[in-house]
Amino acid sequence: MIETIGSRLIQLRKNLKMSQDNVGQACGGLSKSTVSNLEKDGSDPSAKTLIALAELFGVSEKWIMTGQDLSKDHKNMKDMYLLTDDEKTMLFSYRSLSLLEKNIVTKITKCIAE
Fold it and tell me: Whole-prediction pTM value?
């Protein structure tokens, strides 16, 4: 089990090949120093930041805080290891879109897949 919040955040970020800047931007404009401080266990994330991090990385808030309850709804973090680099890039890009943009991408993807 990964011992600290910071070490779990580092693992998640590195699995997606994201920089601290990328994580901060995707979580509503956190600074690189804030992300760094979280990773160094200098402070715990606020509720708003915790929710944003969990959504970004596809894990539960509980897992970030405790290392328990790895799954988030239907997925397991282990599935991240099965994604190609292109899929990880697409997923990261998708997660940074607005709700409207996500709806457009989803509709286009469904049309292409049919």
Answer: 0.64
Number of domains in the chain: 1
47-99 pLDDT, tens per residue? 999 999 998 888 889 889 998 865 544 455 555 556 677 887 888 888 888 88
Cα–Cα distances in angstroms (integers) from residue 100 to residues 27, 94, 96, 97, 106, in the given order:
17, 11, 12, 8, 10
Check if the beta carbon of residue 12 is closer than 8 Å to that of residue 65: no
In terms of phi and psi (left: phi > 0; alpha: psi -120 to 50; beta: otherwise), the region of 97 is: beta
List the CATH number of the domain containing 21.
1.10.260.40
Adjacent-strand bridge partners of 26: none
Does residue 110 fall inside a structural domain? no
